[in-house]
Amino acid sequence: MPIPGTPSRAELVDHLVKTRIAGEVATPRENNLSHYRQLANGNRHYWFGLEFGDRWTDEQDVLAVMAERVGVNDDPEYRYGQDTIDPELTVGGLERMAARLRKAADGHQRVLFATGHPGGLLDVHHSTAAALRTAGCEIVVIPDGLQTDEGYVMQFADVAVLEHGATLWHTHSGDPMKAILTALEREGRPLPDLVVADHGWAGYAGQHGVDAMGYADSNDPALFLAEAEGTVQVTVPLDDHVVSPRYYDPMTAYLLGEAGLS
């Protein structure tokens, strides 16, 4: 569903709903609630490289934040069926992200991009990186030879990813970002001024004290809790792996337009 040029806000909202990036999304309610419960029960796989201590041990508190910041159904008794992402909240998140990108461009800052969902979000990050480079930012080049228990930490099209068996790998772990930041410090190189990422890549960066922004799905509460606490600056709610990665193009165009980078 291409939209020529940069969509208006209303056009983007309509597009997000039609492509199920927002609106009635594919992630079912029972999956959302299961992930909220896992986070509340202390399962670190769902913490995305963040440290929550005992601050989010009630899954109803997690649900309340997700209803406020994502637009999922706020009724704790609604346990099965369709769930939602409010497209207005998606666009609002994009606008907040755009303001921080503008700050990075104005200051010619060092920016690192990374994704745990290369099948959906790689080109979103790549296009944003290209626009910032044109505006005078330094796109951080990660050190060579990095790996985690899951695979190798590589960089393609200016975006850090996890590679495993000659394949770009889906990961929610914060370990790849930990490997990058630790290696930069070891080499005496400055840390990024800003990380734009998703999943554990964004979570660990924020926990490490780096300005971080990210994208997250309705079943991934960690980054939204981190935004509520101020550890992550912006979290944009969306379905992070829809049918075609091209569906994200109008969203990216809107983001860059709002940031004055298009």
Description of the molecule:
This protein is α/β, with parallel strands linked by helices and about 260 residues long. The protein has helices at about 10-20, 30-40, 60-70, 85-105, 120-135, 175-185, 200-205, 220-230, 250-260, and strands spanning about 25, 85, 110-115, 140, 145, 150-155, 160-165, 165-170, 195-200, 210-215, 235. The strands form 2 sheets. Strands 3, 4, 5, 6, 7, 8, 9, 10 and 11 form a 9-stranded mixed beta sheet that branches. A two-stranded antiparallel ribbon has the order 1-2. Strand 3 (about 110-115), helix 5 (about 120-135) and strand 4 form a beta-alpha-beta unit. It is globular and about 50 Å long. The two termini are about 20 Å apart. The model has no long low-confidence stretch (mean pLDDT about 95).
Roughly what percent helix?
40-55%
Question: Quaternary arrangement of the chains shown?
Answer: single chain
Number of helices: 9
Q: What is the helix/strand order?
A: HEHHEHEHEEEEEHEHEHEH
**Secondary-structure class:** alpha/beta
Q: What number is the mean pLDDT?
A: 96
Largest sheet: 9 strands, mixed
What general form does the structure show?
globular
Gap between N and C termini, in Å? 20 Å
Instruction: Give start-end ranges of low-pLDDT stretches.
Output: none
Strand share of the residues? 15-25%
Total beta-strand segments? 11
Rg, nearest Å: 17 Å
